[in-house]
Amino acid sequence: MDSNRSTISSLFLAFLIAAIVVAGASYFLPSANISSRLNAQTTSKPLPKVQWDAAAPGRVEPNGGEIRIGAATPGRIVEVTVQPNDRVTAGDLLIRLSDEEALSRVHAARAEAAVRKRERDAAEGNPPELVRARRQADDAIAEAEYALSQARMEFDAAFLAHRRDASSANLTQLNDRRQAVRNAETRLEDQRAALRKAESAQNIPLPTRAEAGFTVARAELSQAVTALERTRVRAPRDGTILNVAARAGEIATPSPEQVLLLLGDVSALKVRAEVEERDAAKVRVGQLVVVKSDAYPGREFPGKVASLAPSLGPGKLGQRGPRRPNDVDVLEVVVDMEGQPPLLPGMRVDVFFKPVETVEGAVRRTN
Fold first, then answer.
1. Could you please report the per-residue DSSP string of 285-351?
2. Domain that holds residue 331
């Protein structure tokens, strides 16, 4: 019994030692079969090809950028004539400020100019030809400036009437008044050119005291008309109203911080992206891009690089943090979007720049 028990113990100990040796060998010296399987797995699954040369955050903006419109003079907002998504034309009335004081100054300046003109005409009944030409130019400018002011007021009345009732009759009247304003502006420019020509003539006598008095009165009338026009906030260009922050009754001030309206041309969209300095050399004009937005998961919107900034600058889109230290500058890139994507101005997007080889190959195939 003792011999059998010792034999079993010896066999168990030998088996245990063998198992330990085999486990250690397999751990430190992998077999050829395991190596071959690993190699086979590595060779059968190559690394995926990089699809993008660079990626950058971006922001959608209308064609030509957003136009921030404010007041040119302080005043109380009397009327806001537009709403978001309204289409406007250059010169349309967007906001009207209180204008009682400005109108009074225009009437007073016009009366003073009329008196000074009568005094000038009575001072010398038959002036020389050169003096007469200068006087006629002065008179024509004064009349053209006042005619332009009147044409604008009539246009504003027609514009408000069309906003209240978009009938065909009101639309026709609005177009007529718009054309009248353009004609008045052209006439004023022509009269100013005529005055410059008259003043540039040689041997023209110096103005008399009466002529100088009328010139001063005409200048005051021009300033009064300009002050009246500043109580009107007009569209600087054609576009769509993106946002309206003005409210009737508020006080508007000519400050960059007080933006009354946002205007933009949404007929075409652009993306302003910020490429990090390390990827600046990978981006060029004409390069194809893909724009992605969290608002449209799984969708890609194509575009093309339109312009590059001439120098690097601080980023405006990405927030500072451990991965974006304060001294990291970016290259501003403007991308033209293709077609009419459903993106909205102000959206944050991601811009992926396709490899340059792909772009060059596409160009070669096109040619």
1. TT-EEEEE-TTSTT--EEEEEEEE-SS-EE-SSSPPBTTB-TT-EEEEEEEEEPS--S--TT-EEEE
2. 56-61+264-366
